[in-house]
Amino acid sequence: MLSDKDVTARIDHYKRIRFIAEGLFLVAVLAIIIDALFVFSTYQPYTAADVSDDTDHGFVALSYFGVDRTGTHDLIGADLLDEHLAALHKNGYVTVTGKDVQNYYHQGTPLPKHALFLNFEDGRRDTAVFAEKMLEKYNYHAMMSTYADNLKGDDSKFLRPKELTDLTQHGYWEMGTNGYRLYYINVFDRWHHYLGNMNPVVYAHLTSVLGRDYNHYLMDYIRDDKDFPVETYQVMKDRISDDYTMLRDTYTEDIGYVPEIYTLMHANTGRFGNHEDVSRVNEKWIRKLFKMNFNREGDSHNDRQSSIYDLTRMEPRAYWPVNHLLMRIRDDGVDDIQFEKGDSEQYDQWNVLEGAAQFKDEKVILTTEGLGQGIMELKDSDHFRDIHVTADWQGNQYGTQKIMLRANKVLDSYVVVALVNNNLVVGECNQGSYQELQKIDLQLFDGQNYLSEDEDKKAVAETEREVLARYAPNTTMAQKQINNLQEEENREARSVDEGSPEYRPTLSYHKRGNRKVDIELHDDLLSVTIDGRPAVVNETVQRTDEGSLVLAARWPGYGYSQTNLADDVYDGVFAGLKVTEWNPQDDSQVLYDVHYHGWNKLKYKVHIWWRKVLDWALSHF
Known about the structure:
By secondary structure, this protein is of the alpha/beta class. It has 14 helices and 29 strands. The strands form five sheets. Strands 1, 4, 5, 6, 7, 11, 12, 13 and 14 form a nine-stranded mixed sheet that branches. Strand 22 and strand 23 (433-441) form a beta hairpin. Helix 7 (233-254) runs parallel beside helix 8 and helix 12 (453-470) packs antiparallel against helix 13 (475-490).
């Protein structure tokens, strides 16, 4: 038996081992944090070698709303941003500064063929944390744009003046501005009820009930519920001038200078405001305070035919796959873009006929041409007949994703299962003659009946009263809104059955989708299950010949959007795509599977585990 002395010695030995192990773990975590958050190098500007000739290629300008560790509705995830920048770097893009752009316009200094001006808006602290290491990684320079009234506020998500000054020390950042404030005027809800003017917090809580009938603080006269101006020209001029004066004074006091680069929120009018009077006032101050101005958004490309005060930038959305970004840049006139394929072994199993395809994280991402479609055919699948197909369809609800079965080579004969603008559509085409077999509204399929117009108006009004009461400037106004809320809650609203028209909301093209689709096709019978529930059962089809499996996606046309962005590219996303030979007893014969296997599966799992470790480390230290 061990003596008490031996037991104590053994316990002490284990404690030392545990202490050393815990110490090494903490050192490793600290190293991870330091590597992820701190920059030790200095930005190196492009050289004369990067300018191949005197041909005017202009430059591409991209402006991201902000960066989040994992991504949100508006903020791009760090991993996806890294993928965007890596693809741009691979395509030869080098970044240029505001001074480079000014020299390009004023002195005629040529820029590199693939010149990129990179901007991050809103001056968010998380943007600096997650983007700066990527700038160092690719030797990229970017502009951090801020609102002047956020410099002294108590909102911790915005960078303070000292932090902004520190950012510029390594050369990876320069300062820009979005203006003095983000503020909304002339706001109406989607039923054209006047809500007045509001700050971004109130606006964010009312987004679900608004349409596109609103404006930004500097874009127009302040108007009443009849859309008539409630201020004279002089009052409007003083209001806008005061905003620029406060911008100038705040930046001068807090950081020592006014940033040279301005992003006007939000023009896109061909001038500097929605009304010519307002435009003249804005233009005067813009030319007085700034060296250059981004006046438009949507397109990414600028050249010498543009004015340095009327530049355009593209605002990539937080959900854009990398090829979506590259397709938009290509459509803006860059003809030598190379798209990302992702897993090359999986890519080589397909013929991409239109658009661009990427294989990533056990997903097939099919990006359409601008204003067009994407089509890809599984190689050696022309003998497929009776098959079982499963996948999670994760493209946006507004748009078309489809799988064509038993397709012939010229794609004029096939059976098709599609998600079209949040509808399940099944049909078939025989020698160019298409027949729709079934169409199912997936909102109704989910048991969510459409409201009547009266019911929606009541719901909108209740939301408005609740939000306006919560953020009222004083108790008197709050009580007034509470009283209005109680009146709305007590008001009867007619249903569709009671005679009110059905309200069909316009589908936003930003709304995400995710449907698990299970397809069985055997002999002349087609069945489709959506999210585990039968949607189409033994629908009879005429086409029974063998044929290929084809994935397709189509841009649906310009849909509804609360932002000004007009996007003409769509992404069909088929996650976990698996095709087996149909057998009522056992689907054991796998014909295609996008899931990783063997060593690739292990690498993928390790990658996921490592990201979780890094996320944990960054959230706990």
